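pls read this stuff:
=====
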Amino acid sequence: MFSDFRCPPSCTCECLLTAETASLPECSRYKGTFDVLFKVIRQEGYGRLWRGTNASLALAIPTVGIYLPCYDIFRNWFEEFAAKTSPHLTPYAPLIAGSAARSLACIVCSPIELARTRMQAFRELQRGEKPSGVWKTLLGVLSPTGKLVLQTVGGYRVLWMGVGAQIARDVPFSAICWSTLEPIRRSLLGLVEEEGSPITILGANFTAGFVAGSLAAAATCPLDVAKTRRQIEKDPTRAQKSNTWRTLSDVWRSGGLRGLFTGIGPRVGRAGPSVGIVVSFYEVVKHILHQRHKNSLEVIA
């Protein structure tokens, strides 16, 4: 795995990062978010910052398409079930529905998440070489040596490498996020009229999503570190033998608490606006479609 990383510009050894040079502090450590940005731009240009965008888009569309509608369906089912059998369980509907919907979305879209993580983590083999796309990256996972060795590495299951760590990260993230988002959203919408305009719905949902997403991202950062470590592992056999708990233990031994929360700033900075934008626009589209359906029924009547 070390051969896929260059030494930072500050390094005096002027070599590729190897197992031997990785022991040097200047070769193996970044000093923070802005240090990463600066060194990536110096080494590979501004375009590198958007590496994996196509994979992100390919991931976002099916993930959101599965996640949010399933969350609404599961929440409604659980609320109806709780109302009939155990009303005291109704407040837990967002937590259970969010966890179930996110688990489903993670399992279905895990290969694309794997491709995106690898596209963002590894450099091209040669300068000027065209970066690998999603399909080529997944083929590289299936055949790391150029020959198909599916029988020796667990077959196509290797495409779901790290899915356990991803679920371990995303399920608590969704549980925390929706459990925080729903009360905030209800409180904000309660301050306006019952039939709010799209602007008020957008503002209330964005604010609730931003706060909930930021809190959930900060709380689940160690699990995100474990997921990333597992998905950038290039040895299929070693990856198959690893698990989330073992990866977290390795991170703790090598970096302590600080290692577990590596990258918390960028993660929170991305998750807050991301959740706010997705939830707010989803709710606005639902509101507009509901209003059109309601108006069409009134015209028919």
Summary: DSSP finds eleven helices and no strands in the chain. Residues 1-10, 12-28, 148-153 have pLDDT under 50 and may be disordered. Residues 16 and 281 are 44 Å apart (CA to CA).
